[in-house]
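Appendix B. One record, verbatim.
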Amino acid sequence: MRYLRRRQREERMMQNLSDAMAQSGREPHEPGLRAAYGSIPRTPLVLICCPMGKAINHGGLLRLAEAFRLEHVYFETESDNRYDLAGTTGAHFWQPYRLEPAVDAIRRVKASGHRVYCMSLDEDALPLQKAEWKFPAAIVLGEELTGVPDEVHELCDVTVAMPLYGLVTSLNVGQAAAIAVYHAVGAYAEQNPEFEPVRNASRHLLGLDTAKYLSEPEETT
């Protein structure tokens, strides 16, 4: 019961934050976009997250997934049965996700044709920038210190990693995921020119029509 109350408080807090941003003008006024959003195709890319040791990563990963309009996110339950959505900034209202063991999630997505990429610094790993991204796809993430468990790694199709140029040997799972997702979604957009951002700020950056997903405000009498 205590856990449910905490989750409800987090959801109310995120909703209040989202409403406040909209009312303050920090969120661009784009009439019709939210209503149309559910029918806009998502990137055929999922994140599959092994236990990460820190539940606070969940919120940031959901925010990342929603920012790139990913198909789904799977979280394996942490050892203390916790997960934390505090970093989503409301993204969890839009981003599909569920709690499921990584092994089961991989089997689920492979059955639907996803190619599974494992983020791991192994001898057979390909650098992200040279990986051949085939879709639908899944990216598997592990804990920063221990990586992806062997039984999960064995189910993956391709291993990818980021070349680092300093003394640091690894990045936080959220940072690593952001870089991997950016490469993967970029590859998908190149392969599918019809895949475009929905927000005007990003559409403007790419020289796209900023009125594509908007509708005229409803008239009031």
